[in-house]
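Task card 7
Instruction: Convert sequence to structure tokens.
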Amino acid sequence: MIAYTLRRLMLIPLTLFGIMLVNFAVVQFAPGGPVELMLAKVEGTHVEATARVSGAAGGESAAPRAVKVQSGQSGQGAYRGAQGLDPAFVKEIERQFGFDKPAHERFVQMLGQYARFDFGKSFYRDVSVVGLVIEKMPVSVSLGLWSTLIIYLVSIPLGIYKARHDGSRLDIASSWAVIVGYAVPGFLFAILLIVVFAGGKYFAWFPLRGLTTPGLDGASFLTRAADYLWHLALPVTALVVGGFASLTMLTKNSFLEEINKQYVITARAKGLAENRVLYGHVFRNAMLLIVAGFPRALVGILFTGSVLVEIIFSLDGIGLLGFEAVSNRDYPVMFGTLYAFSLLGLVLNLVSDLTYHWVDPRIDFSGRGG
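Output:
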């Protein structure tokens, strides 16, 4: 396992390079960018100023006029007219965003900074990317940890029960809930929860946004804890639905597969108690996929599954930060978080493989080629 682990660790930088290269290349061909957005804002100011000048002229032609606009980025004036923006002004904007260099130079410079975990500053917030992620992380961690904990605490016992009582009324009834969980996406269920329970149409039992109620800083710990759980109820419920369905069926199918194997039949023939057969022999083998997949499931819930839920419930977390970064073409935030979370995902994939070996030492990846 040591040789396998070392090979996987050596592949991480190469994999990261490929991920960053592909995404960087895609962004170069995507329409729009921070420079274009900034120039569009300046041109929008020009349109408003032209309209005001034309209106003041009282019936004059609405032809474009030279209007001086102050740029908050450069601090210098730029005259624009029928010819468009001053090229010198455009060059200054490109320089400030770092687009005065060729794409390959920007890519190499970015990789050099990221290798030192220097992710730069946001284009629009003048805050370091690391600072932004640390600021938003508690919200996403709250959603991920609580939803993952509930999913595992509910799904594993339910899946085991369904496997032991396969075909019973409770198994069939719970299967309908699982089917609904599969069929309804988490974000759609989140909207349904808002409509029903957050003042959308029927009841106003839960808050619509945020994780805390303003003005509770001086309240007791129990009051703040209850308020925190009250705000978490709907978004965590929306996240639990999809994960609950998939993990329940995975647990049930894993146990059913093990229960029908020959070693279980032999153990029962020897007169062992059913609980000892189930939890002494079946449990360890059946839980292999479930336990080993925990790190991967956690990172998925933290950084992908909660994106739409955070947007819907206006939770200021990693998901909402990424959505805003893409919308605003905030490349330092986009690529910085992509690099950090890709690295985390690759490491957790390795941890998942090592967990397989820890749960069952008979599994050894040393014979694999990569």
